[in-house]
Design a protein that fits this description.
The structure is a homotetramer of 338-residue chains.
Chain A (H helix, E strand, L loop, with lengths): L1 E4 L5 H13 L3 E6 L4 E6 L7 H5 L4 E5 L19 E3 L2 E3 L5 E5 L6 H14 L3 E3 L17 H14 L3 E5 L13 E4 L7 H7 L6 E4 L6 H13 L5 E5 L17 H8 L4 E3 L1 H5 L5 H10 L4 E7 L13 E2 H23 L1
Parallel strand pairs in A: 7-8, 7-14, 8-9, 9-10, 10-11, 11-12, 12-13, 13-14, 14-15
Antiparallel strand pairs in A: 1-3, 1-4, 2-3, 5-6
């Protein structure tokens, strides 16, 4: 960490700062410039609150050299994290596909979709029980009943299930859920993250609409700092000035996050695009760029879906896409081995 | 609402759509264009889920004419909402100032600040007990104890208190809190909003970092649809490409939100600027633009604050600012009366 | 186009609007709603200025049904545009790679790079002569001499050349240049676009940092409306709140632009990433998503480049990447043929 | 400037870097950390190209301490720049209002508006002759004839005129123009900026839609480095995810730019809002925040304007606004003197 001092800083103030840092096990090294002096901080600064330094009278600015996250940092864990889920894994060069409807609507619907996506090669089933909707007047999900139906679909197909939690009060209903999803709007619900850190099951953590890579990793750090290292990062599109697509898929998140962290990275092309016709291109791009997997919305009857039908693939289109993804994945693997 | 049909749409599909709309009390009027036909929907469409229409096979696009919110809509409530809190009010031409530290740190601190800001003219006291922090290693607030200390400060000064809730599980601790603040990261925690709708006390609802005016009003609608009409809207800066300031204060939110809604609109210049030296300019701008109030961070010793000291005014600077704000407010009122 | 009328609109005003539209060959169809009436406009509205309608007293809002571009619109030109350049083409399923240094630095440098990238499979040579630099104190390019050296490299290798124009006054120097590049900062230099429309040579039009798909297509329309249909669209990253990468590559631009337009779409992964280590992933993603080609920065000695060395591939890394891209392209083609 | 070295850096590489910096008059001071070492650069780094350092093999990252602009920097010019124009000035605590139509349409129109805004207290007349329009099919301005008519209006009223240049080729037509405006889309047309630097007349430089404060100041630096110090900075709204207003007015630009630079800062509320009804609030906010002036669109008949009528004030509304602005300005001045 580097502290840039203001032009006029008194000896007394500097001593105060030096003392404060020493108490936290950090030593200092000063460089005097023409206009300004800078201090190099030597020691473990990853847990130092940068703002406590910035607010001091003699400090002009503070810049980080070391990342503020440790558990999620590849520097300290060079090998890819590989997370086992049922008979499959996520991470480490796999291509794990999670598929299913935006929301669970009925037993028949969820079992039909589950069997179909399993037949097409999906390894996990997704489905919304608790649905965060912008409008209070929109369908809010089947809630408890939705989770029960997902478990029925799991029994029928053997597919582990992934579903979203909206609030801590729902946590006990997720006992038998295989992967708990934290949605984009909930990425910084820190009370929830802390509690999820006390579980051992995998957490699928989606990037918020306007959150940086670093903030996403800090939210993963919340979960990991409480003891749960099974975090899956998910890019699902960010909010930009472009409104033609629902969000802007930030494809660079794949190489960047894999560079900064050892955690698996998957892509949600459905929410990014907001339109089924763009999902295949984005899915193929994600696999070619090295994503560890995808989470894709698939519906047995998109025209009559209770939620997000416009971005859901039909079961037939998903089957075709899975074949193509396998071809791209093989090509990508061949390149890596080269 | 206007539905734009695809070029080739079959009679059968159109009948299906017409039936579906009729069931919801909406009738149709068709305009045939050269390439495409459009349907005008006649009836109350404010509660219609626009996505259910978009996903239909014959539909190319859907555009709203009427806003999707009703309770928060000025069209249906032309007069300004004025919310009484203790001996003061927010809304309807008032200038209500909420001031206090980012976080409650000790009894001495919060009472010192409370007495000082009261003396300078603030009508409400703010202070964080539960603190949403990006890093799990940063100070997380005094929590329950923080609320207790705020209530002590209220007892000492008579100032009603405003503090932030992070999660539904904390709600019972807010029984004696005068105004519950919903932070930017929590604006779309819909489970929480619904429960806050069952209270009668005022809710200070902050706009999320990347949320539109409409989404903010839809979150207000969640609270109001459950029965609580005492919602105060707060603009606190949005996230843009500019990183010199912590966020970008969207000053236009004032005239726009007051145009769309009857709810009071206040500004948080401290979080927008992220630096105390820019707070006075932004505060004066907000009052001149017609804001109903401000929420400002003030600390007795910003250099040693446990949180956000860099953006906190000293008590002396706040006193000076209050005098200036009164001058601007008087000028603004004189203009309105003209 | 749909015009939404204000609640209270007088007969007289409506007649005025009807007359004005009739003069432009457009007829009207009205739908009366509960609160508001809407007008459907029938006729060719692609060249109608939407703002002239919006400013009328009785108009609340105007919404487009038809896109405001014609020449660039796939609806009117369903087949892909394929542009011949020297012995190669861009568009229609090709994978055309343009490679070379950020800026031309010397005859030896440009010929060394040109021979190397040709050997690796690039079909065109890029190199900057006129360089738009944020700082007046940074290297501004070799200018006229840079173009002369590019032509030497073309003579030596047979590769057609692509280089950027910054201002109309430079146009006569581009006589022998094969493809004229319009940079992101110049995308809305309409005076320049009009003049480029009077040429017949291909124009590589880069999307501006904060320009929508529609604005990019309107800039293409400027060139095409003046008679030059050889426009290549290029996505090179947009500006968002995320600053870890230089820009955010909007990979969805590929399927979206190819859906809206018949023009070829290429990707610039170098400027998007701003770091050489992320270029291979983004390049592979772009080809998998269906891009018609890539423009990649390659330098013989990135550490000593006069410009953008940090994002330039070495010649060796480029050679390796080209092999991988061919593998991905073959996989992508196999999928399309399926 | 601070250079952060990679973990493994060889002696030989470090010597190379030291030599290279010495040649540019810069000396070094090293701090060895636990994981990484950092170099403090001592000397004038304002003209050093940061990217040339970043691309070196041993360099992990580079961070600026000193701003990269000198002429525009308040650190080196503590006093406000005050620019005389005709009988008025811009800068240094003045409130200078520039008003007039989006585009010049006829002699009668421009003289009518000029006389009216002069009567209301405007000190300069604006009017577009060359109009940058997104669509090639929209009205492009009266061009040469537009400038002639502006000069007629100047003769009739004595008001100095401000009009926009789109391209270097138009420069000779601007001989008698008092203030040359560089529009948002042209802010980084560096060829044009260099030439404007050879004039002595004031340049009104608008911030680009997605340009940072620093980029705006670097564009000012282009003009000033060529010798013209009469630059007026103008904030006119930036592009964000919010589309309800045409752009998002970044009101913080006023205190920030005045903090970083000595140049005058004015606000364009018309383009920011995109709707006349929001212009008064934004104008009052700008003056309260300390802007040196405003540039406002005023039209004699907004409903029939050839361009941007929707955001133009009527002459009557402008007259009323000017009275209010004077009240706010007086209040703001009283505060400053306090």
């Amino acid at each position: 960490m580097i502290v840039i001092l203001k032009e006029k800083s008194e000896e007394r103030q500097l001593n105060h700062l030096t003392e404060w840092l020493k108490e936290q096990g950090i030593s200092l090294h000063m460089t005097k410039g023409l206009h300004q002096s800078i201090l190099g901080l030597i020691g473990d600064t990853s847990k130092l609150d940068i703002n406590l330094l910035k607010q001091m009278d003699i400090v002009e600015d503070v810049k980080r050299v070391q990342e503020p996250f440790k558990n999620a940092n590849r520097k300290f864990h060079p090998l890819d994290t590989v997370i086992p889920i049922g008979n499959t894994v996520i991470g480490g060069g796999s291509m794990t596909v999670i598929a299913g409807p935006c929301s669970v609507e009925s037993e028949e619907q969820i079992i039909t979709v589950a069997e179909s996506v399993k037949g097409s090669g999906a390894q996990l089933l997704r489905g919304g029980a608790f649905k965060p909707r912008t409008s209070p007047y929109a369908f809010q999900g089947l809630r408890n009943e939705g989770i029960r139906l997902l478990l029925e679909a799991k029994k029928a197909t053997g597919l582990p299930i992934v579903t979203e939690i909206m609030d801590l009060s729902q946590l006990e209903l997720f006992d038998e859920v295989d992967v708990i999803q934290v949605g984009a709007r909930t990425m910084q619900n820190f009370e929830l993250l802390k509690q999820l850190g006390h579980l051992s099951k995998p957490i699928l953590l989606k990037r918020g609409l306007a959150n940086t890579y670093q903030e996403l990793l800090m939210s993963a750090e919340y979960i990991m700092a409480s003891g749960n290292e099974n975090v899956i990062l998910c890019e699902r599109g960010i909010r930009t000035f472009e409104t033609y697509t629902r969000n802007t898929l930030d494809i660079s998140a794949i190489p960047v996050l894999k560079n900064l962290s050892h955690l698996p990275v998957i892509i949600d092309p459905s929410h990014a695009a907001g339109a089924a016709r763009f999902v295949p291109s984005l899915s193929m791009a994600a696999i070619a760029a090295g994503a560890d997997g995808l989470i894709i919305e698939v519906h047995n009857d998109p025209q009559h879906a209770l939620c997000d039908g416009v971005q859901s693939l039909t079961m037939e289109d998903f089957e075709k896409l899975m074949k193509h993804l396998t071809v791209i994945k093989n090509a990508q693997t061949a390149c890596l081995e080269d």
